[in-house]
Every structure is written in structure tokens, then in C-alpha cells.
Amino acid sequence: MTRTSPDPAAPDKGREVRGMFASIAPRYDLLNRVLSMGLDQRWRREMLARLPELQPGERVFDFCTGTGDVALAMAPLLGEGHAVHASDFCEAMVARAPEKCRPERGAPPHFLVSDALAQPYPDRSFAAATVAFGLRNVQDPPAALREAARILRPKGRLLILEFSKPPRSWFSAFYRFYFFRILPLVGRMLSGSEIDAYRYLPESVWAFPTPEELARELESAGLSVLEQRPFLGGAVVLHVAERPDT
Ligand SMILES: C[S@@+](CC[C@H](N)C(=O)[O-])C[C@H]1O[C@@H](n2cnc3c(N)ncnc32)[C@H](O)[C@@H]1O
After folding, report:
1. Is residue 6 part of a domain?
2. Within 6 Å (CB) of ligand 1, which residues are found?
3. What is the CA radius of gyration of the chain?
4. Which of 40, 46, 56, 135 could be disulfide-bonded to 36 (CB atoms 3.0-4.6 Å)?
């Protein structure tokens, strides 16, 4: 049977994922708000509450930024003299970010097109890196973690917000039904795309490492895990990791 969504295990997953996000880019923000019932913005704020204290002039980097929601929420929190850089490998997604900037919310982030597997920055460039609902979509997540660790300064933080398969409970049974049955139908109606991004979403979450496995991948990338905080019965997890003091 021909697939109408990216295969999370395909060798050319990156190309398929980029095409999928390009096709849903015009409706991506609307879909996020409707399908998460507004909770996505609350989870992003929880993530930003874990940013480290910044030294004068330090910068923060949001990768897999999509339409820039994390970068735009972060900019006014940092204050004078700090810059936000934000990138995505799908030009159609990141192209929507600048039009969402508001002058009253401080200096706009620097948006660019780049791949999470090869960031265009020298080692130790940033005090923190963030990624919301992006790591699961990357072709090679351990390589993206190593790349994030490389560009962090000593004691810099990596904050990851990502879906997770919730532990078994009455909630997980209900959630599974919503995630595999309702969400793909509503997503298909609202996205206006031929590609079933909202069939790919639950499949990619079920294929993604558990929090324990991700903690091991973070350690392998040279980072220490400080916190793994579940939201919504474990359907979303905030991972906080830090580069050692070297
Ligand atoms: C679900 S969206 C998340 C966007 C945003 N962070 C948010 O919170 O709404 C995932 C994004 O990851 C991007 N992405 C996937 N693989 C990537 C890679 N290798 N390098 C850069 N961006 C990537 C996609 O293009 C997409 O915009």
C-alpha cells in the first residue's frame, strides 16, 4: 500500500519530513492550537522557565524552530544585550516566523535555514539550546544531540520538549484513541494537505525513545540530565540537560 505520510523508519526520512512540513506550513500554527487545545503554548513556557542565567552578551539557540514560537516567546524574556538565533531545515516553515515578530516584544530573533545535524556555528557558541517537538522528526536524533552539545558553552543547557508514549493507565487508553483515531482525521481536514502529517505524528511518537532511553542518548552526547518532567500523564516530557563544566 502506498504511504501518504513519512515513514519514521525510512532511510530518507529527512527529505520526507521536510516535504511534509512544507505542505502544512500555512496551517501549522492553527493545527497546533486546535489539536493540543492550547496546551502547546503552556508547555513551551514551562520549558523557557528552565533557561540558565545568562552572562552579558550570551546567546540562545532554538533549533527545529518551525514557525518560530519558542524563539519568539524567548526573545522578550532575555532582556537587553542577548540574542536569540533560531533555525529549521524547512524554509517554508521558518519563512513564516518573521511576520509573527512584534516590535513591542523586543529585538527579533535571527531566523535562518539550517540542518540540526550540521549547525553553522563554532563550538561553545550558546548558553542554551532549545528544541520543541522537533527532535523526534530529525533523521538521526543522537547526532542532533551531539551537535547541540557541541555548540553549548560549559554549563550550557539543552532543553527538549517532546511527545512521549504515556505509561499504561486509563488515560493512556483514552489518549491512544484520540492520538491514533481522532487526531489524524481532524488534522487531515484542517491541514488541507495530501500528506497525512497527523498519521505520521502518532507513529513517530511511538517510534521515539522512552525518557529513560533518551536520557542515555543525552549522556552519550556528553550531557548530564538534570530533570525529566512529564506533562499530560506523560504524553509530553520536558528534558533538561547540561554540558559539564569543561
Ligand atoms: C513539529 S515541528 C516543531 C516546530 C516548533 N519547534 C514548534 O514548537 O512548533 C518540527 C520541525 O522540525 C524541523 N526539522 C526536522 N528535521 C530537521 C532537521 N534535521 N534540521 C532542522 N529542522 C528539522 C521540521 O522542518 C519542523 O519545522
Report:
1. no
2. 14, 17-18, 21, 32, 64-66, 69-70, 88-90, 93, 115-117, 132-134, 137-139
3. 17
4. 40
Q: Domain tally for the chain?
A: 1
2, part of any domain: no
Among 5, 31, 88, 94, which is best to mutate for testing ligand 1, by the most ligand atoms less than 8 A from CB? 88
Q: What is the value of pTM for the model shown?
A: 0.94
**CA 238, 51, 140 angle in degrees (round to 5)?**
50
What is the rounded distance in angstroms from the CA atom of residue 3 to the CA atom of residue 54? 46
Residue 91: give the domain boundaries.
Answer: 13-242
Residue from 20, 64, 119 whose mutation best tests the ligand 1 pocket (most atoms within 8 A of CB): 64
CA distance 66 to 54: 24
Chunked in runs of 10, what are the mean pLDDT values of the chain (246 residues)? 72 91 92 84 94 95 97 91 96 97 87 97 98 97 98 98 93 91 86 79 94 98 98 96 92
- Expressed in angstroms and rounded, the spacing between residue 170 Cα and the centre of ligand 1 is 31
User: CATH no. for residue 161?
Assistant: 3.40.50.150
